[in-house]
Specification:
By secondary structure, the chain is an alpha+beta fold. It is about 30% helix and about 30% strand. The chain contains 2 helices and 6 strands. The chain has helices spanning about 10-25, 75-95; strands at about 1-5, 30-35, 40-45, 55-65, 65-75, 100. The strands form 2 sheets. It has a 4-stranded antiparallel beta sheet with strand order 2-3-4-5. Strands 1-6 form a two-stranded antiparallel ribbon. Strand 3 and strand 4 form a beta hairpin. Helix 1 (about 10-25) packs across helix 2 (about 75-95). The longest helix has 20 residues, at about 75-95. It is globular, with a radius of gyration of 14 Å. Residues about 110-114 have low confidence and may be disordered.
Length: about 110
């Protein structure tokens, strides 16, 4: 999900991300910064487990005025439901704050290269 206007500050985006992660019981890591792209930061939250299977990852990526919330799965149909729940929670908190956004579904790659 990407906000369509400047209605969402970086600070509020982080607060909303933490709120969704807390509701799902995920610990938040971040800010994660890459010295090659100092204008970009990321927060991540994920399920804990023995390996990459059956995992759900939440990400918040911000680069200047572009903010992206995402939920990604690698696992079972049950995990798909949980990732969908995360996406719904993101839309709910954005709606509560009156932030316009667009939703992108699918496997479109995101790249924040140097």
């Amino acid at each position: 999900m990407s906000p369509e206007s400047g209605d969402l500050s970086d600070t509020l985006a982080v607060d909303l991300f933490r709120n969704v992660a807390d509701k799902l019981g995920f610990a938040v890591k971040g800010p994660i910064e890459d010295p090659r792209t100092p204008q970009t930061f990321e927060y991540a939250a994920e399920t804990s487990g023995p390996g990459p299977v059956d995992g759900i990852w939440l990400h918040l990526m911000a680069n200047r005025h572009r903010i992206i919330f995402s939920s990604e799965i690698y696992g079972t149909a049950g995990d798909f439901v949980r990732a969908g729940t995360a996406a719904t929670l993101f839309t709910q908190v954005l709606d509560q704050h009156g932030v316009k956004y667009r939703v992108r579904k699918g496997r479109d790659p995101l790249f924040w290269g140097p």
